């Protein structure tokens, strides 16, 4: 390019060299990023690349997705499997920790790979897709477990599946008499809104209520394209919830959180959870102390509509499950 402007990104970038060629990684950061790439997956979709301001070294979108040499340092408190799913896995691809609901992880691929991901040791483009017999065994487990009323599809990102496979899976689960609701956790509507085709929206039209929990951490992720994808899903009858992670340098101010939750609501998404960061390896640069998180939520109370208010939660270590972190008020105090 004569003016030095990198070409517009038209395909998902999956290597440090591709990021550098797109102007999203400085040359000096290349060796560190290559070392990270040897251990963790990388993916930046065209939609995400278009949101990054390469001139801003502290860009909150870049920070979520561009690899950094700091990921190679594991802090003493960080754990390979922070949610400790292992003991709660009755069959491959299923996690059953709570009596009335269970996770089904049909694949481990995502549209993007977040640098703070709590499943970063497991997610990636190759591997993790359940084989047909494994999926049958997982569906048989749901059929044989009447206490489980809610099937939660996660991964990886279930909206990376073809509409045909997704519709088949949801149809099988919805047909079980004990299943009352279905849920999907996904980053696709914001990270790859083009994947939310009419065929995908149609695949999500199910006989039982379907809740889609959209993962987004910054107001800018709610582009016109993302809002269009979410509106298509809403028209298909999908109930839209939001989940975010409290992240240093991304949304660690009352203003950033207010903008994020307002952007969600404008896109028909009700903020559900704000997660405390799980201590996955190499994620320390994103950590915000719990007391600071509580103070941020206190600052929002009263200032924004109650609809914008998520529950602030933390995953307890060793498979203890999610617990709310407050903040709490004294009812008698002024
Ligand atoms: C987070 C999680 C759920 C869902 O929990 P909710 O509080 O209902 O959103 C279910 N199963 C497992 C194993 C989880 O980690
Ligand atoms: S989309 Fe979710 S599972 Fe995938 S890398 Fe990001 S946080 Fe992890």
UniProtKB/TrEMBL annotation:
State the coiled-coil residue ranges. none
Residues in domain Radical SAM core?
A: 96-322
Identify the residues that bind [4Fe-4S] cluster. Answer: 110, 114, 117
Is-annotated flag, keyword S-adenosyl-L-methionine? yes
InterPro entries attached to this UniProt entry: Aldolase_TIM, Lys_aminomutase-rel, Lys_aminomutase/Glu_NH3_mut, rSAM, rSAM_sf
Which Gene Ontology molecular-function terms are recorded?
4 iron, 4 sulfur cluster binding; isomerase activity; metal ion binding
Q: What is the protein's given name?
A: Lysine-2,3-aminomutase-like protein
The keyword Cell division appears for this protein:
no
Keywords, ordered alphabetically: 4Fe-4S, Iron, Iron-sulfur, Isomerase, Metal-binding, Pyridoxal phosphate, S-adenosyl-L-methionine
Essential cofactor(s) = pyridoxal 5'-phosphate; [4Fe-4S] cluster
Q: Which family does it belong to?
A: Belongs to the radical SAM superfamily. KamA family.
